[in-house]
Design a protein that fits this description.
- The protein is α+β, with helices and mostly antiparallel strands.
- About 30% of the residues lie in helices and about 30% in strands.
- The chain has a single domain, classed as Aminopeptidase.
- The radius of gyration is 18 Å and the shape is globular.
Length: about 180
Amino acid sequence: MEAEMIAVQRLFGFSDQDLASINKLIPQLSSSALLHTTETLEKVLKQEHHHIFVARDNSPEGGGKIVGMAAIFFEDRLEGWLGEIHSVAVDSAYRGRHIGDQITSQLVADGRLKAQKEKRNIVVYLTCKPERVAANRMYRKYGFEPAAKAIPMRDPWTRKVLRDPVTGKTRYKGTNLYRKLFQP
């Protein structure tokens, strides 16, 4: 599939197919998250400072279905604007095609636009599991700087790093926290 067949755009309205696609992505983010209804997704989209971006597969086979998503929201606090990126997900069948990269590019552009519109600095934060090596590298590529790192879990007696018994991968406590400053 060619890259131009995937289009990333801000979501302002949605179809039943869009709702179904978003609800397919939600369990890939969290097994405990609730799925959206038409009413709950409309409520999210009506929030002025909450922006949802989606990646659509516009190939003939994809038919415009949503295959990736992310949200960025902004809050005007007394000490200045704060932004957070959440709910970054790409359908498991579409991973490895740089769709997350395209979505992140749009999130960064949105952060810049918001800082210009408000004529103030905005600090944007995001978290990422350390196991998601490619995603962590991608966020650094876009200028997100580490603000805090997840720590490897250790056996309390031997102090050895704990590993998953099935995969052998290091187990972590917490997530990596990244920050990026957007200036007007």
